[in-house]
Specification:
By secondary structure, the chain is an alpha/beta fold. Strand 3, helix 1 and strand 4 form a beta-alpha-beta unit. Helix 1 packs antiparallel against helix 11, helix 6 packs parallel to helix 7 and helix 13 runs antiparallel to helix 14.
Length: 316
């Protein structure tokens, strides 16, 4: 799949999950075969204030990464684009986040209620960019206002190089089932690359999603939490081969590598606090997972996390 001048080596990409898709997680997912990852959402306004925390969100370690911006003012977004694109392959505009603190400011999926403004933001970003600009959106604001096909067409007309569509509306948040028919309708309205998002938890899900929607690639979000090897499974399936399932020891080795990266980049205290949710995801399905989760939630050192993950191997 090619986006602008960039050819991706895998059509499965990691979603820009706030609080999850930080640099350590992206490093692990790329090692497992993700063709592209997106940073957590970056505020266009915050970039204008040279906020150090904001710049840390955009660290990429030279991995194939898109920096995702959110904002509701064309001029503000345009000013942020040159700074953001220095950090990644290209810039992605968030028009799909359902969080009230984002939509309450007219940003994220709130922009789907104002396609004209959304088009102005896209046009301003494209004008300011020297690299491709892409757009991520939802099916619509609610079931009475499903307008992703219209917004995708507007994005293409205003110079977007690709669009990603999550098949849920903003009002659904993450409940219910992603509507593939909406993504299919988007495919029929645009010729630029289309990435389908929603309910990809296995290689079979990825293949069926692409087949049913005509999408060029798939975006994996929650399906990669505690299972970053899903990218290797999808890549193998797209090539018509099977990927051997990792053993329990291999899974826990990946989990430990991930947690060690978090500690490396964020320090032990903050790192272990943030690693707790990831460790809990990695042990899903393990015998005695409930008691192990209790230990994880009390862990405050990397050494303790090592002990817990070793127990997860022994329990299996």
């Amino acid at each position: 799949m090619r986006i602008g001048g960039f050819e991706l080596n895998n059509r499965a990409v990691l979603a820009p999950m706030a609080g999850v898709a930080d640099l350590p997680f992206r490093i692990v997912c790329h090692k497992m075969g993700a063709g592209l990852s997106y940073t957590e959402m970056v505020s266009a306004k915050a970039l204008g204030f040279d906020n150090a925390k904001t710049f840390r969100l955009m660290e990429t370690e030279n991995l194939p990464t898109a920096v995702q911006l959110f904002g509701s003012e064309p001029e503000t977004v345009a000013k942020a684009v040159p700074q953001a694109e220095k950090m990644g392959l290209f810039v992605d505009l968030n028009m799909g986040c359902p969080a009230p603190k984002i939509t309450g400011n007219g940003e994220g999926s709130a922009l789907m209620r104002d396609p004209v403004l959304a088009g102005e933001i896209i046009a301003a970003a494209v004008e300011a960019a020297s690299k491709p600009v892409t757009v991520k959106m939802r099916a619509g604001w609610d079931l009475e206002h499903v307008n992703a096909p219209l917004l995708a067409e507007i994005a293409q007309k205003n110079g977007a190089a690709a669009v990603t569509v999550h098949g849920r509306t903003r009002s659904q948040f993450y409940s219910g089932i992603s509507d593939r028919s909406v993504i299919r309708a988007v495919r029929e309205r645009i010729t630029i690359p289309l990435i389908a998002n929603g309910d990809v938890c296995s290689a079979a899900d990825a293949l069926s999603l692409m087949e049913e929607t005509g999408a060029d690639g798939v975006m994996v979000g929650r399906g990669a939490q505690g299972r970053p090897w899903i990218f290797a499974e999808i890549a193998a399936a797209m090539e018509g081969r099977d990927a051997p399932a990792p053993t329990q020891r291999e899974k826990m080795d990946i989990a430990l590598e991930h947690i060690e990266l978090i500690v490396k980049y964020k320090g032990e205290h903050i790192g272990i606090l943030e690693a707790r949710k990831h460790a809990a995801w990695y042990i899903r399905g393990v015998k005695g997972a409930a008691s192990l989760r209790e230990e994880i939630n009390r862990a405050v050192t990397l050494e303790k996390m090592r002990e817990i993950l070793k127990k997860a191997i022994d329990e299996d």
